[in-house]
Amino acid sequence: MKPSTEHIDSDSGRSPSGDEKTIGVEQGALETRGDGELPPDPDAHLSPEERAAIDRKLLWKLDLRLIPWLCLLYLISFLDRTNIGNARLDGLEKSLHITGGQYNACLSIFFVSYALLEPLTNVLLKRLRPSIFIPIIMTLWGIMMVTMGLTHNFQGMMTARFFLGMAEAGLFPGINYYLSCWYKRDEFGIRAAIFFSAAAVSGSFGGLLAAAIGKMRGIGGKEGWAWIFLLEGFATILVGIVSFWMVFDFPDEAHFLSDVDRQRVLRRLKADQQSSAEHEAFKMEYFWASVKDWKTWLYAAIYMGCDVPLYAFSLFLPSIIASLGYRSTTAQLLSVPPYAAAAIMTITVGYIADRTHQRGLCNICTSLLGMAGFAMLVAGTSPGLRYAGTFLGALGIYPCIANIIVWTSNNTEGVYKRGITLGFVIGWGNLNGVVSSNIYHAKDAPFYRQGHGIVLGYLTVFLFGGSILQYTLLKKENAKRRAGGRDYWAQGKTQKEVEALGDLRPDFIYTL
Prior knowledge:
71% of the residues lie in helices and 0% in strands. The protein contains 20 helices and no strands. α4 (100-128) runs antiparallel to α5 and α12 packs across α13 (328-334). It is mainly alpha-helical and 512 residues long. The model is unreliable at 1-35 (pLDDT under 50).
C-alpha cells in the first residue's frame, strides 16, 4: 500500500507537518521491509521520554478503536450460539415436539459445520479484508438466528443450527488472529482476555435477557423461546450492517491511522519479531508448516481440554441450576453470577500472564480451580455446594480459553502460518463441542454426574496435563536455542531467508 503524502490525521483533522514529511512519511515510505531491518523511525529525533509518551498514546488509540466493538461482536456471537440453552427452559422442546436426544443433536450439528470451516476462515479474512469479511458473516448468522425463531420442527432447527455454525466459524479465530496482527506479544494477552470476557458477560446478559424476553410469550402467536431467537437475530443483523463502518483493516491499510501512526505500529511489530509487519502472499507451504509443527497439535489438545468444558458449561448451566430446584426465571437469573465472576477472572489472568510472560503456569494454576469446581459437582449433593462448584468451574475454564489462544499466537510466527494454526487449534476444540452437546442427559438429572465427570476428565488430562507437557517442551527448546544448539538452522542463509523461518529462527525464544 502507498498512502497519500497528504493523509489527514483522523484524530486531529490536520495534514502532516513539515517535520513529519522530512522524517520519511512520504509516498511509499510505509512499505515494510523483508530484509529484517526496521522501517524508518518517525520519532528518531525525540527523547526516550517523549517516545514512550507517544507509544502510550498510540496504544490507547488502538485500544479505543479496536477492542470495544470487537468485544460487542463476540458477546453477540456467543449469545447467539448458546441461547438455545435458555430457550430450552422456556419450552422449546415441548413446542417443537423433540426429544432430549434430538435437542442434543441440534447442539452438535452447530459444532460440525463450525469446526470444519474454522481452519479456512483466517485465510479468507486475510484475503477479503476484515472490514468486509466480518460484517458479512455476522449479518448471515443474524439471518440464521431469525430462522431459528421461525422453525416448527426438529428438521428446521437442525438446518438452521448447521448454517449458523458455518456463518459464525470465522469470528473467534478471525478476531484473535486480527488482534495478534496489531499488538506486541506481551500486549496481546490482556486484550484477548478482555475480548473473550465478552463470552462470560454474554452468559450473564443472556440469562437476564432470556428472562425478560420469555415474558413475551403469546405475542404475535409466538412462544417465548421463539422471541429469544427472533429479537436477538434482528439485533445481530443490525450490528452486522453497522460493522461495515466499525471494523477496520490490518495496520498497513487501517484508515483511522495517520501515516506517521501507521509507521509507528509497523515498527513496533517488526521490533517484536512479528511478520505481521510484512506483506506476505499465501503459499501452501505455510499450510504445511502449520500441519507439521508439533506445537499446533499439542495446543489443539490443550484447547480441547477447556473448550469441551466451556461449551458444556455454557449450554447446560441453566439446566444444571434448574436441577437444583429453581424455576425457569430464577434459574436464568442464578446463571448470571458465575459468568460475572468468570469475566473478572479472565481479565485478571490475562493481565498477570502479560506481565510475567508465564502463560503456561497461568494455565496450570487456573485449571486447578476448574478441576476443583467439577469435583464438587460430581461429589456434591447439596444445592449450595453444587452452585459453588459452578463458580469454581467458570473461574477455571474461561480464563484458559483466552490464555491458550494468546500462548499459541505468541509462539507461532508468520502471517499465514499463525492464522492457519489458530484455525486448526480453535477448530479442533470446537469440533469437540459435539462431545459437550451429548454428555448431559435428562435421565441423569438432577446430579448429572456422568457429564460432570467427563468435563473433569478433559480438564485434568488435556488442559492441566497438556499445559504441563507444553511448558516443559518449550522450556527445553528455549534452553537449546540460548545455548546455540539451533544455530545451524540459519547457517548459509541470507537475512531474508532467516526471517522467513518464523518461529524456527534460532533467536526466536518461545513464551512459556
